[in-house]
Amino acid sequence: MKYRHSSAQSADYLRLALKQMTKQKAGLHPASYAIWYEYVANLNPALQAAIDTHLGDEGPLDDEATYALYDRYLAELDSKTALRIGDSVSQIVGQVSDSAAEAVDQASRYGSSLERWTDTLLRPVDSPGPLAAGVEDILRGTREMQGAISRLQEQLAESTREAQQLRQEVARAREEALIDALTGLANRKSFDLALAACLAEAQPDLSGPCLLMIDLDNFKRINDAHGHVFGDRVLAKVGQILRANVKGKDTAARYGGEEFAVILPTTPRGGAIGLAEALRALVFSSRVRRSGDKEALIGNMSVSIGVADYLGGESASEFVARADRALYTAKMQGRNRVILAPRPQPEASR
Question: Which distant-in-sequence residues (6+ apart) come within 8 Å of 324 by Cβ?
Fold first, then answer.
């Protein structure tokens, strides 16, 4: 991963990036964060040249130009980078909010102090002259300062509101970067992160973790018979079933295409098989209506599921591969079934 900046460096680059972003017509979304972060950090000369050319020829970037640059020069923003950028923005927002609150407090105290002195300064002066003129200057300066402080307070209050809105937007962007839009499940990147965290915390003396790899049977046939729009509705239906039945510390994800996965950090083998059978039955009994017509609900959907319980010391890829092989076996044995991945037998002593 090429983003190896410290928190302080990231914060500096984000300040510069945000300054550039406010001059553009594009929204404050992750794609915009990404291209301007790379621009100010001097990480991508080709991107910098393309941005400079666009600014010179066509002016500020709009959303269309921003996404085009993002797609061409950055491809897909990985989730760790999105989280790191989001953390840096949140850090800046926090600093601005804290500074704003402190400045408002100081301004308020100063204004109160000046107000208390006003009555004394307004008392008649015995002999007019330079002293009286000086008092008038002080009063005029005092009123100007109070007006400036009042305007500053309003500006700081508005900045604080904007900072909070930006913080909320960053939080939403962080969440969206890890969610599959069609099914509402964790996406592949989120799955990889969750599985890595799960295996890092796995304890040999406790049950679990277990992994389910799930694949829709004959999905190409469904698409060919009913169209891709209906196919998307089927995928969304499976996502709905998984969201409703996978809770707590467990993670349900769309692994890719018509394949799904469920991580069960503390579930023993028997419990994993029981959940897999329940999910298989729910999909098989479900019905999906074609969009835009009143035809009968279409059913006969099924999934094949491979189940693997973790073997201490194996990598995440090995764990997934064992569950995937069990899934393949379920397909070969007729589909619409659950297969448990075999555990390797210890070598016989010679």
Answer: 213, 306
3-state secondary structure of 249: coil
Q: Are residues 270 and 198 in the same domain?
A: yes
List, for residues 88-144, the tens digit of each pLDDT value.
555 555 565 565 556 556 656 655 665 566 556 555 555 555 555 555 565 566 666
Contact 253, 194 (CB under 8 A): yes
Strand order in the sheet with 210-216: 251-256, 259-264, 210-216, 303-309, 338-340
By C-alpha distance, which of 42, 40, 41, 38 is closest to 73?
A: 38
CA–CA dist 180, 186 (Å, integer): 6
Tokens, residue 47: 């991107």
Same domain, 35 and 145: no
Structure pTM?
A: 0.57
> Cα separations (Å) of 53 from 23, 28, 29, 60, 328?
16, 21, 22, 11, 51
Which H or E element spans position 131?
Answer: helix 130-176
Residue 349 domain-assigned?
Answer: no
- How does pLDDT run across 260-295, given as a tens digit for each residue? 999 999 999 999 999 999 999 999 999 988 766 666
Rounded CA-CA distance 21/347 in Å is 62
Distance CA 40, CA 38 (A): 6
**Domain residue limits at 168:** 80-176
Query: Are both 222 and 148 inside the same structural domain?
Result: no
Strands 338-340 and 303-309: parallel
In this structure, are 238 and 108 located in the same domain?
Answer: no
Q: Which candidate in 258, 259, 277, 295 is catalytic? A: 258
Inside any domain, residue 346: no
Cβ proximity of 86 and 167 under 8 Å: no
Amino acid occupying residue 119 = D
Residue 11 lies in a domain: yes
Q: C-alpha distances in angstroms, 350 versus 124, 344, 345, 347? A: 112, 18, 15, 9
196 to each of 28, 169, 308, 320, how far by Cα in Å? 30, 27, 16, 11
- Identify whether 162 is a catalytic site residue: no
